[in-house]
Amino acid sequence: MVRQPAINAQNRAPLSTERIIETALQIVDGQGLSRLTMRRLGDALEVEAMAIYHHLPRGKEQLLDGLVAHVAAAPAAVPAGAADGGWRGALRSWARDYRARLLAHAGVLPLVVTRRNPTALTETVVSLREIMRRGAVTEDAAATAAHTLVGYVIGHCALEVRGTGEDGADRVVDWDARFDAGLDLVLTAAG
């Protein structure tokens, strides 16, 4: 029998909120949201579950909020312009990146839809509004369009993840084409 060397605690990265969130995200991505427990997370981090509470005093509630902030707010930095069309191109690029991020972490999508995380949403909407205002879209129109764009991307991802593969007319759904067509409608209406 060959013995595996014991993992030395000194060789592990120090426990941090970021490391906890990243590890929780790996569990959700690999096993699903229902399999995320503090004990399983502690095992994955090679620490006692109670050590996690030092970084997340509110426990699993704070962990779930952290997952939402990490996944939903990641692409909040919107490029100031894009080669394919000014502010609309920048928003198109943001929407595609945001969709990719949400689909890559589809296990967290139910949390993005149902949990309140005003900071993540506010930062994203402010970034989107600023891009539109630079494109001469009025403040009121930019506020409405930013909210609509965020809702469109999240809603489309929720439908895509749940997807049936056909659209009710017994046609196979091309989710990329459908996303881009809907995105064009939203951006055209934006101003």
UniProtKB/TrEMBL annotation:
Residues 84-163 form the Tetracycline repressor TetR C-terminal domain. InterPro entries: Homeodomain-like_sf, HTH-type_TetR-like_transc_reg, HTH_TetR, Repressor_TetR_C, Tet_transcr_reg_TetR-rel_C_sf. Pfam families: TetR_C_1, TetR_N. Keywords: DNA-binding, Transcription, Transcription regulation. It comes from the Bacteria. The keyword Transcription regulation applies. Residues 20-65 form the HTH tetR-type domain. This is TetR/AcrR family transcriptional regulator C-terminal domain-containing protein.
